[in-house]
């Protein structure tokens, strides 16, 4: 499992970067023959992002490239800063945002938060019905015996997240979800302190992670997939990125 994810993490993104590199050379060559300088629109700024995240931030078929569209703007902004400050590690992302200003990152985050492309069809389950049932139970009820709060207590009953900075969990691939929970457990992903997701993730076993990731990836998006309003839920643990 670990191996499968890490080879994807390395090789597919490299291929995508190569593609972007070629596109860059091509547009540079084109620019030389163009009379007018290219206009600095939001679409042109995010062009380097879309090979991996889709034209409207809908994600791609690659299990590992996450959807950005419709996630709360402050959540996306926090992640871009996390990559810039190395609180999250994924070399192509760390590299792309190294020299971008807070203001620029804010504009990119706002742009993707406002995109509304359709959600992918829910994944077909590849685990047993018992594992799916366990995943559903953890997401909706938590694991009281281990002090794991319900994921829905913070990510919303519709799992579409909460403004301003809690992301939705629908529309993500199982491999991406389990890799993120794994990154929190191993300490390679951090959020603003107190890092409530670290507290949640370290209470989960490998089997729990597999169960929640599998169940979440099989859930269709709700009719109106917008994040819940700010402060509409009282988070059961303190989260630095979602002050209440
Ligand atoms: C080479 C492929 C690639 C490119 C190009 C790329 N990304 Fe990413 N991005 C990823 C991957 C893979 C992740 C998940 C990394 C991880 O945490 O393991 C990610 C994560 C993110 C996240 C966090 C998503 C979340 O839900 O937590 C944001 C925001 C983001 N990227 C924005 C951008 C923006 C903006 C650009 C363009 C400036 C960009 N990305 C370009 C592959 C890419
Ligand atoms: C106490 C509130 C809280 C609870 C409970 C909680 N989360 Fe989170 N979760 C957050 C916050 C806040 C973030 C954003 C962290 C950041 O800024 O990186 C987050 C982010 C995530 C992400 C990253 C999404 C992405 O696009 O990269 C995943 C995956 C996730 N949570 C899964 C879960 C699962 C599964 C559970 C239940 C086992 C859970 N969360 C329970 C608050 C919570």
Give the averaged pLDDT, no decimals.
87
CATH superfamily of the largest domain: Cytochrome c-like domain
CATH hierarchy class name of the largest domain:
Mainly Alpha
CATH architecture annotation name of the largest domain: Orthogonal Bundle
Biggest sheet architecture? none
Low-confidence regions: 1-32
> Helical element count?
11
Gyration radius (Cα, Å) is: 18 Å
**Series of secondary-structure elements, N-terminal to C-terminal:** HHHHHHHHHHH
- Output the CATH topology of the largest domain: Cytochrome Bc1 Complex, Chain D, domain 2
Structural class: mainly alpha
Indicate the percent of residues in helices.
Answer: 40-55%
Shape verdict: globular
Q: Which band does the percent of strand residues land in? A: under 5%
Distance between the termini: 37 Å
Give every kind of bound small molecule, once each. heme C
**How many domain regions?**
2
GO cellular component, one term: periplasmic space
GO molecular function, one term: heme binding
InterPro entries: Cyt_c-like_dom, Cyt_c-like_dom_sf, Cytochrome_c4-like, Cytochrome_c_Oxidase_Subunit
Binding site for heme c 2: 151, 154-155, 197
